[in-house]
Amino acid sequence: MVQALPVFRPWLMRPLPACTATLSALLTLTPSLLPRTALFQGVLCAVAAILGYGAGVLVSWLIETARKEHEPVRRRARTPLVLVFALLLGIGLWLYQRWQRQQRDALGMDGQPFWQVLLVPLLGLVLFGALLVICRIIHRSGQWLIAKLGRIVPPRVAVVVAVLVLAMGLSSVMDRTLIQRVAGTLDNIYLGVNDEFLNELQKPLVSEVSAGPGSLSSWEQLGRQGRLFVNNTPQREEISQFTGTQAQQPIRVYIGAGSDGEVDLREQAYQAVEELERTGAFERQVLNVATGTGRGWVNENQIQAMEYMWGGDTATASIQYSYLPSWMSFLVDSTRARDAGRLLFDAVYQRWAQLPHEQRPLLVVSGESLGSFGAEAAFSGAQDFASRTDGALFVGPAANNQLWGQLTTERDAGSPQHLPVYQEGEHVRFSDDGVRWPGQGDWEGTRIGYLQHANDPISWGHASVLTQRPDWLRNGQRPDEIPRQMIWVPVITGLQLVLDQVAPGVPDGQGHEFGQVPVRAWAQILPPEEWNQDDTERLVRLLSTSQPAR
H or E stretch including 8? Predict the structure, then answer.
């Protein structure tokens, strides 16, 4: 039997695992949807390398290349392999820097200094070495346990029992360190952030918003995002100055998650309807049911655009289903987002449907990212949207959006995945700029719009990319926004898209940043009478210069 490699000497590796680890790390240097910093690239190289190393060990074991009689061959191959690896690394880093520069230039992003490229191998090797040591400790522990058990039970039984014991032990450690401690700490942190009072914000003085005079919700109960939401409501004087006519004070209703985060979503939905009743929301021209992200954030660019367009004669309602960031909220309990979107819309729709037809406000639905994931849950398909709403705008849909995924999969033949056409665009259309909405003929009746970018990893980073090539990387469907050097590699491409989701410095109009595009989108989906393109551009300029508190 081959002598085991030293646990704390990770630089000692057998040839095949070393080759697969190096190849995996080099493949991550290829471009993906968005530029990566050297720091993120180093982490990506290390994670890919440890996975590649594990695959190499498995292959070695299967084909028995690690026999003792091959030890002299391995020793002679070590030096040439190191030289080859060093050469490949140098070429790979040069290409990585070149590709990153080209991609950054195309997106209008600042360049990355060449010296930072040195962080890639340094960080990658250190992190890979640490991961390899951990893996070897686990492997050694398994061998020791098998040897002990082999004295009292048959060898095969010993292996099975050892694997089960190790799995249970690792699960217990992970549960105590990650789930209970780390997740618990993060939970407390974000609960504290949600309860942050924000002394610079003043309690509203108008009755048209939650926590204002006569409101059923207190200022403290709104939570951080709720306080920001009502505080960012434009005043009627500001809207009048833009429209040149007498405007109304927009209505904004928000039901927070409370100070402990323990909420009844159905009760929140009913409270929202009561607030809508109190503020006279059902007498406005437009009623918008907006689902927020995990921490309760609602994009001001979507809400203010409609408020200014309609002269303040609008009402927007939202409830907070979580105080965690979207990624944590999705991992912990993604069903809460869907339940919140469904329950809020159903409660509002039930009251709205009781009104005489001629007295009903235009009923629309909106959401961004995880908010779009939740807002879709109230509907079974395009026809359901068309029959129960007067329009909808979903910005940056998440890869797990069920209805969006269904519409994309069932798109008309010949239309690309990144910008599909569904049923000739009768009711549902997709756009990347809010101006062009591909489809056949005029967009009549209820308009359901999806804003999405071809290089948005939130939309295209589906788990299926780990094992199968997506259509948007196939010949004939690859959009111009995706670098031609991007290739699909099982697992590797999926890892790249994960890190793309936290890429810093992405400008508006790229990735998951949409800027003022929702203004142009609403101008196409639900414009008031006599609204024109000049009005849209004036509003874009106005909202571009204003910076709502966040």
Answer: none
- Positive or negative, the CA dihedral 439, 443, 448, 451 is positive
Residue 364's nearest CA partner among 349, 380, 354 is 349
Beta bridge partners of 367: 291, 394
**503: number of Cβ within 10 Å:** 20
Four-residue CA torsion sign, 314, 318, 324, 325: negative
Residue-wise pLDDT for 511-548, tens only, equals: 999 999 999 999 999 999 989 999 999 999 999 887 66
C-alpha 12/C-alpha 20 separation (Å) is 14
Task: List 387's β-bridge partners, or say none.
Answer: none
Instruction: Specify the 3-state DSSP secondary structure of 449.
Output: strand
Q: Report helix, strand or coil for 286.
A: strand
pLDDT band at 354, cuts 50/70/90? very high
pTM: 0.86
Could you give the count of Cα atoms lying within 13 Å of 153 in the half-sphere of its Cβ? 11
pLDDT in tens, 266-312: 999 999 999 999 999 999 999 999 999 877 889 898 999 999 999 99
Strands ordered across the beta sheet of 251-255: 251-255, 314-319, 286-291, 362-368, 391-395, 447-451, 428-431
